Amino acid sequence: MSFILRGLLSGGRAVYRARAPCLHYGSVAPDICERTLVAVKPDGVQRRLVGEIIKRFEKRGFKLVGMKLLQAPEGILSEHYHDLQKKPFYPALIHYMASGPVVAMVWEGHNVVKSSRLMVGETDSSQAKPGTVRGDFSVHISRNVIHASDSVEVAEKEIGLWFHRAELVSWETNDHIDLYQV
Ligand code: IDP
Ligand code: MG
To answer: What is the tens place of the pLDDT at every residue in 50-64?
Structure first.
């Protein structure tokens, strides 16, 4: 088992990064230990899409290692969307994200960051392909149902922002051999 947990100081606040704290199955295979943050946004929770979204990630073969329903604090939202602060839609975005509970999840597996983005679809729902979450359940960019981290580095930061270390669970799936050769 390989745990590399680093406490970083960011803006005077401790941010813990969870890098690949996953179990190894015989050989060292860090690429199957990739993790990403997925969040069902308030519109998705209101529309009772949580189960549908979890089902897609489970069926794909990813492993759920963290999950919680929360009313997102403004501090988390402003840090999460820090890069969009100057955008004209930023105030509406924060208002939307604080309008009801969010279901935040951490999913683990091979190439999970990129695969999740493909499963989620284009940011602008009107461009999202059928079969993606946004392409199936959303018609407008301002209510696009779901968030997924867009790179491994961003995923590490976002997981540290939304989850405490103790909220993430490393566990062994019984179907591992059906999903991976390693
Ligand atoms: P992403 O969620 O696909 O990664 P980002 O560009 O990171 O897309 O934008 C974050 C979120 O900000 C989007 O998911 C969406 O909720 C919101 N957003 C982005 N662009 C617009 C816009 O032009 N109008 C309204 N909301 C937007
Ligand atoms: Mg983004």
So the answer is: 999 999 999 999 999
- Residues designated as active site: 147
Q: Do 109 and 32 meet the contact criterion of CB atoms below 8 Å apart?
A: yes
Residue 49 pLDDT greater than 90, yes or no: yes
Torsions phi, psi for 163 (to 5 deg) = -130, 145
Dump pLDDT digits (tens) for 102-117: 999 999 999 999 999 9
Sort 78 into a burial class: Cβ within 10 Å, 0-12 / 13-18 / 19+: middle
142 CA from centroid of ligand 1 (Å):
7
Q: Is 82 helix (H, G, I), strand (E, B) or coil?
A: helix
Measured from CB, residues less than 6 Å from any atom of ligand 1 are 84, 89, 93, 123, 141-142, 144, 147, 150
